[in-house]
Design goal:
The protein is an alpha+beta fold. It has a domain at 1-80. It is 19% helix and 14% strand. The chain has four helices and four strands. It has helices at residues 24-30, 91-95, 101-104, 116-123, and strands at residues 10-13, 20-21, 40-45, 51-55. The protein has a four-stranded antiparallel sheet. The structure holds zinc ion (ZN) (3 copies). The site of one zinc ion has 7 residues, from loops.
Length: 125
């Protein structure tokens, strides 16, 4: 059970090890390697148990519904900066940077929210 996200509604598939995790921080705790970046993230709805994919470069709030059962999976991250699949840095390192005001301002965002910078970096492949 994920202790980083309140009432987690989806699992994500790590593109690096092809395993399902509730969030990027769960991956960081279980695995010793870094979570690989991906443009298209695979999700598994915990309600209807069906998988679906989202393009993370065009991700917005209206996308936070399971396409199969309309389960709303807005994820209120307990810890800020738990951005899924777009951070090159280890999530454990990010968790220690909570004093940063810039990070604090993002606290209420979905963990899937991306910075324009990060989006640009993804598109820069
Ligand atoms: Zn992995
Ligand atoms: Zn977690
Ligand atoms: Zn569903």
């Amino acid at each position: 059970m994920c202790k980083h996200i309140l009432n987690v509604q989806v699992s994500i598939r790590a593109p690096c090890c092809k395993q399902w995790f509730d969030c990027a921080e769960c991956h960081a705790e279980k695995e010793t390697h870094k979570l690989a970046k991906t443009i298209e993230m695979a999700f598994l709805c915990k309600k209807c148990k069906k998988a679906f994919r989202k393009d993370m470069t065009t991700y917005e709030e209206s996308d936070e519904f399971c396409p199969h059962c309309d389960n709303h999976y807005v994820l209120e991250a307990k810890a800020p900066r738990a951005v899924v699949g777009v951070e090159g840095e280890d999530a454990r390192v990010d968790a220690r940077m909570l004093k940063d005001d810039r990070v604090k301002a993002k606290e209420n965002h979905s963990i899937f929210t991306m910075d324009p910078d990060e989006e640009a970096a993804l598109l820069d492949f």
